[in-house]
Automatic annotation (TrEMBL):
The protein's name in its UniProt record: Ferrochelatase
Gene name of this polypeptide: hemH
Entry GO terms, CC: cytoplasm
Catalytic activity: heme b + 2 H(+) = protoporphyrin IX + Fe(2+); Fe-coproporphyrin III + 2 H(+) = coproporphyrin III + Fe(2+)
GO molecular function, one term: metal ion binding
Top-level taxonomy: Bacteria, Pseudomonadati, Bacteroidota, Flavobacteriia, Flavobacteriales
Organism of origin: Fluviicola taffensis (strain DSM 16823 / NCIMB 13979 / RW262)
Keyword presence, Cytoplasm: yes
Intracellular or extracellular location(s): Cytoplasm
Length: 340
């Protein structure tokens, strides 16, 4: 009898619709996660439910409406993740492997999907969060949620967890192939923009010292191999090497900050400065996101375009995410097969 394997792909999540009620529900679940806002419970409760959600929901709902319009009436994140699941399943049609997909927040929920996987009685589970670079707020949260559900099962099968894949050749190649759609030399500046994190969250990676003590911008070491900042810079170096870029042709920056105590440099400030300096065309990568979403299509493709124009620039060109590119499916297939 062949080994029966279930693979769970996990994405961050999306509201069920751009309606205020659905956006409010999504924001509450997302922001109340102690790995996302890592402050004491009652302080987090007051901040999220008393300040952030009431004031942010109407604005966020309008932005999600723009995103749904770009996605033909559906969340692009959900559309691409469903496509990835389907394409990856086809790679295993001759094997005893079933690919499932869940969202860390909202639907399809991890509770419902893992309940189905529990009933399937797999010999082995492979948990694969779709975040190339490990962060406690993304990969860590997804794995913690999965294990909190699985630990209640009477029979727990063999479990493999894939924590990150930022240096997998298939993932890197999927970004390279997307970049080939553009005439790179025609751009004045190249930005690699990653989702930001509070400085305190990357500091928590280390038993001794702070992130700033570990040369995270320069190399991967035994100490910083799970530091989000370090793996973001390494991801960029791998992409830049394949594109033939020199160090002075690009910058690594971080977007979506909530305050000034997040990892720097800030992407929006970089864009503003480039416009003031007379640059006209920017090519922007967002390698932390394997599927286009609000942060890529709206924040970079829309908001950064407006900032750039306000300060004299002309065009911020977003390089699409890996989405369902064949080389990204190659990456996921290899990750699964090497963990049988």
């Amino acid at each position: 009898m062949s080994k029966k394997i279930g693979v769970l792909l996990i994405q961050l999540g999306t509201p069920d619709s751009p309606k205020n009620s659905d956006v409010r529900r999504y924001l509450k679940e997302f922001l109340m996660d102690p790995r996302v806002i890592d402050i004491p419970f009652f302080s987090r409760l007051l901040l999220v439910r008393g300040i952030i959600v009431p004031f942010r929901t109407p604005k966020s709902a309008k932005i999600y409406k723009q995103l749904w319009d770009l996605g033909n009436g559906k969340s692009p994140l959900l559309t691409y993740t469903e496509s990835v699941k389907s394409l990856l399943q086809k790679r295993f049609d001759s094997d005893n492997v079933t690919i499932e997909m869940a969202m860390r927040y909202q639907n399809p929920s991890m509770d419902s999907v893992l309940d189905r996987m529990h009933k399937a009685n797999y010999d082995q589970l492979i948990i694969l969060p779709l975040f190339p670079q490990y962060a406690s707020a993304s990969t860590g949260s997804a794995v913690e949620k999965a294990m909190s559900i699985i630990k209640k099962w009477w029979v727990i099968p063999e479990i493999k967890i894939i924590s990150q894949f930022y240096n997998h050749e298939g993932y890197i190649d999927s970004i390279i192939e997307r970049a080939k759609e553009f005439d790179i030399p025609s751009y004045d500046k190249i930005m690699f923009s990653y989702h930001g994190l509070p400085e305190r969250q990357v500091d928590k990676v280390y038993e001794e010292g702070l992130c700033t003590d570990h040369d995270c911008e320069k190399e991967i070491t035994e100490e910083n191999k799970f530091c989000y900042k370090a793996t973001s810079y390494e991801t960029t170096r791998l992409i830049a090497a394949k594109l033939g870029l020199t160090d002075d042709q690009y910058i690594v920056s971080f977007q979506s900050r909530l305050d000034e105590k997040w990892i720097q440099p800030f992407s929006d400030k970089v864009i503003e400065q480039w416009g003031k300096e007379g640059n006209k065309r920017v090519l922007a990568f967002s390698p932390a996101f394997v599927a286009d979403c609000l942060e890529t299509l709206i924040e970079i493709g829309g908001e950064y375009q407006e900032i750039f124009e306000e300060h004299g620039g002309e065009k911020v060109q977003l390089v699409p995410s890996s989405n369902d590119h064949p080389r990204f499916i190659d990456c996921l297939e290899d990750l699964v097969r090497t963990n049988f």
